[in-house]
Design brief:
Elements (H helix, E strand, L loop, with lengths): L1 E3 L12 E3 L4 H4 L7 E4 L2 H9 L2 E3 L6 H8 L4 E8 L6 E8 L4 E4 L3 H6 L1
């Protein structure tokens, strides 16, 4: 459910382990502080289609402001489906200086 975080750019003392995409369905229901939900489909698609992002470039201002509040480390972005019941989640990692990356393999991306 968790993967050791081996960063090339920093020590990531706040995030020694990150949530794996495969374990996300088990962990997400228990997350409170490190999950950000959005109903903006365009923003969610942008996050899963590209690996690296600048928080300022996220189309949804509400989502961008919620991500800015997070400290560096692993977090989860959840997309609320239009039916209001289902949520698709993806593992992300926020870095210092308003950068973040999607921590999802191409195999898992196609299953979304």
């Amino acid at each position: 459910m968790f993967i050791k975080n081996n960063s090339k750019t920093s020590t990531n003392s706040e995030c020694i382990y990150r949530i794996s995409q495969d374990g996300l369905s088990f962990v997400a229901p228990s997350l409170r502080k490190r999950i950000v939900l959005t109903e903006n489909e365009a923003s969610f698609k942008r996050l899963i289609m590209y690996h690296y992002h600048n928080i300022e470039d996220v189309p949804c201002d509400k989502l961008s402001s919620e991500i800015k509040k997070l400290t560096p480390g692993c977090f989860v972005v959840g997309y609320k489906m239009p039916n209001g019941k289902d949520i698709e989640c993806v593992t992300m990692h926020v870095f210092i200086a308003s950068n973040m990356s999607t921590m999802i393999s191409k195999e898992n991306l196609y299953s979304l």
